[in-house]
Structure formats: C-alpha cells, structure tokens
Amino acid sequence: MSAQHVDVDATRRARDLLGVSRLTNLALTRWTHGLPGVDQVGLEARAGALGTRSIKAASKAWAIDTAISMIDLTTLEGADTAGKVRGLATRALNPDPSDPSTPSPAAVCVYGDMVATARETLGDSAIRVAAVATAFPSGRASMPVKLLDTRDALAAGADEIDMVIDRGAFLAGRYLEVFDQVRAVKDACTRADGSRARLKVIMETGELVTHDNVRRASWLCMLAGADFIKTSTGKISPAATLPVTLVMLEAVRDWRELTGEMVGVKPAGGIRTTKDAVTFLVAVHEVAGPDWLDNHWFRFGASSLLGDLILQRQRIRIGAYSGPDYVAEDAPSIY
Fold first, then answer.
1. Nearest to 143 by CA among 105, 183, 103, 84
2. What global pTM score does this model have?
3. DSSP assignments along 181-245, one per residue
4. How many CB atoms neighbour CB 123 within 10 A?
5. Of 19, 159, 193, 310, whose CB count within 10 A is highest?
6. pLDDT digits (tens, 9 = 90+) for 231-270
C-alpha cells in the first residue's frame, strides 16, 4: 500500500495548495469552484458500462472474498441493545460457521454508547470498531458537542470515527466552516498516547444535489484531513450510487497525483447484492487503481450485503446454494 495518508497541518497545507497566506472562505470557494465540472452524461454512461462487464469465475471468487473483507458490519437503530451489538460482533468474527476460511468484515460500526460492548466482544481480533459521531446522522450540533461525541467514542475503544459534515453550511457556501469542523474532529481523533483513530467523513451525497457539489465536497474534506470520504449515512435516499462513487474515486486518484497521499472511499447504503459489489470493485480498479483494492482504502457500508456474498461464496465452493436459512440474518439497518 504505497502513498500512505500522513499526518499534516491541514490549514498550512491548504494555504500552500491554494497559494494564499491566509485561508478564507473566499479562497476555498474560488478553489473548489475552479475544479473541472462533471460531465453527467459521460459519467452515467461509464457507470452503466461498468455494470455490463463479464467476470471470470476465479476473479469472482476473489472479488467475493475481497468484498466481504471490506464490509463495515453495522447497526445504527434507536432500538439497538447490548445483546444485538454482541450478536453483530460475533457474526463478524465468524461470518460463515460452515467455512472457517471465510474472511471477516473490516469493522463493526455502532453508535458511540455501544462501542465498549463491540470492543469487548471482538477482543484482540483484527476487526475494527467504528463509531458514528458528530451528531450523526444530521450533524446539527455545536462543535463542543461534536468533539465530545468523538472523544467519548475514542475513550470507549473506537478505532475509527465516522463523522458527518454540516450539509447546510456546505450548501450555503460556508466552505471554511466545513473545513474547520473536519479539521477539528481530525485533531480530536488523536489519543493521549499519540495514536490516532482514522476519520471517515460522510458527505451525505443525496443532499448535495449535483455531482459538481460531490466533487467539491470530496476535495474540501480531503483538504481538511479526511482519511476516508464517504457517501452517505444510509438514512436518506439516494445513498451510494455508482455515478457518485465514480466522482469520489476520481477525486482520491487526483488527490494522490497532487499530494502523494492516498485517501479511502466508502460508499454506504443501497449496496445489497454480490453483483453490485463486484461492479463497485471493477470501478475501483479502473478509476482509482488497484492500490485501493484493500480494506485499508475501500469499504462497503452495506451490512445487508454480507448474506448474499456468503451465499454466492458457498455456491462457488460446493456447487449449489445452501439456502438463506443457513445464513445468519443481516442487521436491519443498511449503512
């Protein structure tokens, strides 16, 4: 995994990249609006063509295992209980009891008050604990509240923080406010011992209206220090569409060309089938490049995807479907 994301002073880097002595809202507006516009017709045509690719059996088997390893297995409901979170974490540890060679998902994602429960169940496994924070899903809270939300999740044992941007601020053109909020949460992800949780920044692309706004928000979040840019909370529609994800993949590819740093991408919500997952992986390979085909740089926020992937994996392994009754039920929230 080359071109690792590195710790930088986001404000200083932003001033350098923008060529200004002081970072202002006007400077950020001019810079983001100076990005190339998105050709929507061409974008949708490319997305449609990616879905028609023929995948050989050996490649499909690899893609299924890779997709499983990229899932953030999630429950984000007001009715979540400690028992439900323990069950989800247990499933992550053993996604297919009939085949111990089945990969584990990348992470278990929960609300902050459930982090300790997930952490205890996962023990010292390599599966990460991700926590949504910063007044998820609306993002409508003061910065002291957002930062406390983040620090509480870290204190409970979270490895990753999934924050949401203030879409109202972004749509009103208050780009410096969005930048400062992402930068502040990134700073809050540093623990007392100097280690740092990775920060995924949710843009809620379904509320950004245009593909040009998705491109601008992607660059703004990367400029502020995001380790991942993420499509959605999974609470509104549309969520993770392939065209939107293509825009984000182009952004992280171009960001690496500009800075030498890699940033991850996480489409979340609405990805339910193995065919969907394989199409997204083809897009990752062709747009961003093979370096992103690793769960350090690409995730699926789609808990309901796991069941279908396991069924397809079993079909390849034993030559028949075992039937959905032999696969654990998916978490009720799609994220």
1. 183
2. 0.93
3. HHHHHHHHTB-TTS-B-EEEEE--GGGS-SHHHHHHHHHHHHHTT-SEEE---SSSSS-S-HHHH
4. 9
5. 310
6. 999 899 889 999 999 999 999 999 999 999 999 999 999 8
82 within domain boundaries: yes
> Which residue in the list 146, 235, 266, 308 is annotated as catalytic?
266
Which residue among the candidates 80, 96, 149, 162 is catalytic per the annotation?
162
Which residue of the set 159, 230, 276, 330 is catalytic? 230
Q: What are phi and psi of 61, to 5 degrees?
A: -60, -45
Give the domain range for residue 271.
38-326
> 271: domain CATH number?
3.20.20.70
Task: Look at the block and give the residue holding tokens 């949710």.
Answer: 202
**Catalytic residue status for 146:** no
What is d(CA 317, CA 320) in angstroms, rounded to the nearest whole number?
8
Collect all residues with Cβ–Cβ distance below 8 Å to 311 and sequence separation of at least 6.
321, 322, 324, 327
> Any catalytic annotation for residue 235?
no
274 within domain boundaries: yes
Catalytic, 230? Answer: yes
Picking from 208, 202, 212, the residue whose alpha carbon sits closest to that of residue 269 is 202
* Measured distance CA(316)–CA(314) in Å, rounded: 5
